[in-house]
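Lecture notes, unit on protein representations.

Consider one protein chain, 263 amino acids long.
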Amino acid sequence: MAVLLIGIVMIAFFTAGPPTPPVGTTLLQVQEGGTVSIGQPFILEYGTDDVPVRIVFDSAWFTTTHEIYEADSGYKLLVLQLTVQNIGSKEVDTFGFGDKWEVQVDKGYVYEAKSQPYLDVRPEEKKTGYVIFEILEQTSPVQVSYRQFLSTSVAATLNLTGYSFVTTTIAAKEYLLVESYDWPEGGALVLRIRNYGSVSATIDKVYIDGLLASDEDALIKPGSVVEIVCSNPSGLSLERLSMHNVKVVTMVGNTFESTVHYG
């Protein structure tokens, strides 16, 4: 009888499944590369120590100018915003000079990136970067592929089929970008905003999902960075890793938007 009981206990131990999540828990689908969509996080490894980095393609849009880039006549810029977070234990460089970014459009043409990000991140740190393509004006992107340096396989493919693109323009000569941010669980959103424009700009208000989060004026000279601490507005729904729209409005009425993640 004792032997039988021991055998039953051992069988139960080795066949036990994973713990069941609490009722109401939402499991975020995070994968290692492969095909992803806008807003879907995935993980890639970088450096000689294979440091894991969480990557999200936040949004994509068309424009004629972005930072120092301007589309030729008959062409437009496709701007892809992404956010990386180091979820490992060592500082690491994400992406690299030898990495290859390509976009395929509905006419079958393939274009290489005009500009790509180089983001150094410390453990837990998040940074935002941009991949810029120049494509024919009368075409629509189908997918973006990313291949790491010396790799023979595609690390990640962004599916853009059916995505609703917005065409943006920048009024005057102001040009502000959220260069990086921190938004810990239970804490305030801290934005680091750089002025890429040719004139000074004064930030008037910052909105999160259309709700006022900051109304303190902040002057940014060309090339400089300012840090804005935003409150969590009443009525804002926050869940770990939830995605939110941030809108920065200047005194002259120009609006600059980006996407951030909570937690």
